Amino acid sequence: xxxxxMTALVLIFAAAMMLAAQSAExxxxxxxxxxxxxxxxxxxxxxxxxxxxxxxxxxxxxxxKGGDFLIEFTSAAEEGQKILRTGSVVYxxxxxxxxxxxxxxxxxxxxxxxxxISYEDMTEGNSTLDKYDAVKxxxxxxxGVDCWAVELTGKSRAVPYxxxxxxxxxxxxxxxxxxxxxxxxxxxxxxxxxxxxxxxxLWIITEMVIEDKLKKNSSTRLKMNSVQLNVPVNKNLFSxxxxxx
Amino acid sequence: MKLYRIxxxxxxxxRVRSLLSGSAISIAALSIVMLFALLAGMLDDMENNIxxxxxxxxxxxxxxxEADEMIDPMSAPVLGAGALLDQIDAMExxxxxxxxxxxxxxxxxxxxxxxxxxxxxxxxxxxxxxxLDEFLLxxxxxxxxxxxxxxxxxxxxxxxxxxxxxxxxxRFDKKxxxxxxxxxxxxxxxxxxxMNSGMQAKTLELAEIxxxxxxxxxxxxxxxxxxxxxxxxxRGDLASEILIRLKKGSDxxxxxxxxxxxxxxxxxxxxxxxxxxxxxxxxxxxAMAEVSYGVIAAVxxxxxxxxxxxxxxxxxxxxxxxxxxxxxxxxxxxxLVQLFFLEALYIGIAGSFIGVxxxxxxxxxxxxxxxxxxGAMEGVDLGVSTVIYPRLTWFSVVGVxxxxxxxxATATFIPSLRAGRxxxxxxxxxx
Lengths: 245, 431
Hints:
Radius of gyration of chain A: 20 Å
Strand content of chain B: 15-25%
Oligomer: heterodimer
Number of helices of chain A: 5
Largest interface: A-B, 23 and 23 residues
Number of helices of chain B: 14
C-alpha cells in the first residue's frame, strides 16, 4: 500500500481513538457547550408528584447565554408569578405582593413551586469545571443508549451537590442521566432525560424527570412543549424593574 | 362528769393552746381548699383554651391531616368548606362554627427571614367564637380587619421583629397598648406563604396588635381575613379545618356521631370529625395536666395532714403533767384516749370549718376577679391563661372538711395511747 494511504489510515485511526478516548474534562466541556444558547424561549409544563397526587404547573421561560432567565407561570393557581435569575441572585415576584422576594443562602434549597427542582439547582451555571473536578468512569449503556460516565466532585463547599455522576450520551453530548450525592455518599436526587429533540440543528432536552430520593413518591417531570433558540429577546427582560411591571 | 363535757371544758380553758392548734388546722384546710379550687380552675381554663384555640367542641379536618399534623395543611385541605359550613350552621346543636386556614409564613426584613404562623379566619364568626376583639392591644385604636380587606392583626412579637412596632420604654399594659407604638406611617409587610405545593405572597397592612391570654399563642403569629387568603391562594373554597362550638348542654360525642353520619351520607369519607377530648396531642396534654395537678394536690394534702398531725401530737406531749394529774385522779388509759380524741375532734371541727369557710370565700372572690398568674407563668407554657378563675368543687369543700376533722381526731390515738400507758407518778415527774 502507498505510504500516503498508510499515513492517512493511521491518522484516521488515531483520530478515532482520540475521539473514543476523550478525557472527562473534554466530555464535560462539550456537554456544557451543547446546552449553551444565545437565547432560548420555551413553553412547558411541570408535573409535580408527591404522596398527595400530581399537580401540573405551566410556564413560559426566557434565557440567555449569560445564565439569566425569567420564568412566568401561566397555570391558574400560580398565574402571574415570576422567577428571575440575574447573576447569582434569584427573585420571586407575586402578583399580590408589593415587594420582591430575594432568595439567598439556605432559602435557595427550597423546591421551585413545590417541585424537586430547587432554586439552587437553577443557579448552577454552564461552566461545570469551574466548580467541579471531573474523573472519567467506565462507559455504560443506559436505556439502550451508549454513554460516558463522569464523576464530578465539588471543588469547594459552595456547590449544591458535593458529588455528581453524569452519564453523557455519546451521540448528542447531552446528559442521559445524572445522580446527585451528598458528601457522605447518600444519593439525594436522580435526573433522567426522557426525550431530546433537534432544534435549529442543536440537540436539546425536551423532557426529563427528577426524583428526590430522600422523599417517598416524590418526582418532577419537566416537559418542554415548544422551544425556540437564538431568537431576539429583550435584555431588559432580565431586570428587576421589569419583574415589577 | 361526762368525758365530752370535760373535753369541751379543756378546750375552752386552754384557749391559747386550742387557738394555736385550731389555727394550724384552719390554715391547712384553707390551703387545700384553695389549691383544689385553683387546680379545678386551671383544668377548666385548659379545657376552654383547647376548645377555643385548637379544636372547638368538635373539629373537622381531612383524615390525612388529622393523622399527621406535621404535614402542610394545604396538602390536605377541607374542600367545599363554605357549603359544609352552611349545613353545620343549620344543625340545632351548633352555636357557631369557624373555618380556619393555617399557613406557614415568612416575612423578609433587612435581609433576614422571620418565620410566623398565619391563621386566616372569618373575623365575624371568630368574634362570636372567642371574643377576639377583647384581645386587641389598642395601640392606635385599631379594629379587626374587615372581610375581603388586605389587613392583618399580628402578635407584638412578629410585629416587632419585622419593624412595624417598637417598645416605648413604658410598662407594657395589655389593656390599652401602653409600652408599644407603631414605628412609622408604613404599616405594610409582605407575607410569603410557604406550602408544599409552592409559595404565594400577599402584602398586608397591620390593623392592630393582638395579645392572647394564653402565653404560647403570643409567639410570632398573625390573622388575616379568610376570603382574602382564599383569593390569594387561588384554590377555591377551602379550609385547613372547621371548629364547631356547641350550645350549652349539647353532647360533643353524640354530635360527632350525628355529623359523621351526615358526612358519610354525602360521601365525604376524606373528612374526619373529632370531639375535643379525642384530639390526640391535646388529650395527652390534658391528661398529663390532670395527673400533674393530682400529684401537686396529693403533696399539699400530705403537707396539710402532717401539719395537723404534728400540731395534735405536740399538744398532747406537752400535757404530760396534766396527764399525770388525770391519771392520779383515776382516769384510765382508755378514757384518756377518748378524752384527747374528743378534744381534737372539737378543735378539728372548728378549725376545719373556719378554714374551709375562708377557703370558700377566697375562692369565690377569686373565681370572680381572677388570679393573675402572669408573672409566675412567664416563660412557662402549660396551655393555661395568665388569669385563672378558681372553681370550688364538692370534694374541695366537703371532702376537705371531713378529711381535716378525721386527720386531727385520729392523730391523737398514738400519742394518747402512749400517754395512757405511762404511770401517773412518771408523768408528774417528767415535768
